[in-house]
Amino acid sequence: MNNITIGQYIHGHSWLHKMDPRIKIISLIFLLVTVFLVPISSNPYAVGTMLFLVFFSLTLTKSSKIPLGKVLRGLRPLVFLLTFTFFIQLFYERGTQYGTILDTKNHLSLITVLIIVGLIVLYNVTKKRIPFRILYFILTVAAIFAIQSINALNIVNFYSYDFIITGEGLLKASFLFLRIVTVIILTSLLTFTTTTTDINFGMEALMSPLKLIKVPVEIIAMMLSLTLRYIPTLLEETEKIMKAQASRGVDFNESKLKEKIVQIISLLIPIFVISFKRAEDLGNAMEARGYIVGQKRTRIDQFKISVGDYFIISMAVLLLAGMILARIYVL
C-alpha cells in the first residue's frame, strides 16, 4: 500500500511548489500530450525526443527537491504491467534495421516445464526475503526463457518456437518503457507539489468556461480534489485492516484462491463502512464551515501568475508545438 503515491502531497518550498496551480495543470497536460505524440519508432529523432523528455522530467524532479526514489516508488504497482509490455514488444518486433541480437530455437519439453514450475514456486516462496524484488522478478522471467534454449533439456518436446530479439525490438520496447515512466513521473510531481485545495482551485478555474453551458464546475472540481485527497487515507485504513487481520492469522499471500476471495470480501466490507463514515464526517465538517453546493467561495490565498509561470508554460507550449511540427514534417 505504501507504494501507491498518487494523491500524496510532500511539503516543500521549491519553485514547483510555489507555481500557480492553473499553470501547473495546463503545463502538465501539454507535456503529457507531447509525450504521447512521440511515435514508438526507431527513428533517431523520435528516440532523441523521448530521451530529452525523460531528462526533462528528471530535471523537474531534481529541482522540486522531491526524492527521486519517492517518485519512482509509484512504479512498483505497475511492475508486472511494465515487464509484460516490455517483453511483448521485445519478442514480437521483427524489424531488421539494427540487426539481430539473439536468434535461438526454444523448446518447451517435459524437463523445461518442470524447471519453469520450480522457478515460479521458488520465486513466490523467496520473494518476501529479497530486497530488490523488481530486479528479482525480471531475472526470474529472463531465466524462464533462457532455460528453454538449452538443447540438453529437450527431452519429450511439446512445442518449439523461434526466439528472436532484434535491435529494433529492444529499442521500441525501451521506448515504450520510458514513455510510461515519464508519464508517471510528471503526474506524480503534480500531486507531490500541489495541495488538494490548490488542485481544486486550478481545475475549477480551468473549467470555468463550461459554466456558460450550465456545467456544475465547482461540484466536479470538488469531487476530483476530494478523490485525490482521500486515496492515501483509504490506503492507510486498508493497511491497518490488513495488519489487524494478519494478527488474527489471515495470510493474503499464501492462501488458496477460494480463501483469498473470502479474505478480500472481509477486507472490502470494512473499507466500504469506513468510506461511508468518512464521507459523512466530511459532509458534516463542510456544512459546519458554511460550505454550500454551487455557491461562490472566497479564498485566503490569492494566486498571481508570475514571470516564472509564464516561462514554464511557454516551454510546455514550445515543446508541444515542436512535437506537432515534427510529426507533420519529420517523424
Summarize the structure.
The chain is mainly alpha-helical and 331 residues long.
How would you describe the overall organization of this protein?
It is a single chain. By secondary structure, this protein is mainly alpha-helical. It has a domain at 21-195 and 305-329. Helices cover 64% and strands 6% of the residues. The protein has eleven helices and two strands. α1 runs antiparallel to α7, α1 (21-37) runs parallel beside α11 and α9 crosses α10 (257-288). The radius of gyration is 25 Å and the shape is flat. It starts with 20 loop residues before the first helix and ends with a helix.
Blueprint of the fold:
Elements: H1 21-37, H2 44-63, H3 68-72, H4 79-92, E1 100-109, H5 110-126, H6 133-147, E2 157-166, H7 167-193, H8 196-206, H9 217-247, H10 257-288, H11 307-329
Helix pairs in contact: 1-7, 1-8, 1-11, 2-7, 4-7, 5-6, 8-9, 9-10
Supply database-style keywords.
single chain, 331 residues, mainly alpha, two-stranded antiparallel sheet, 64% helix, 6% strand, flat
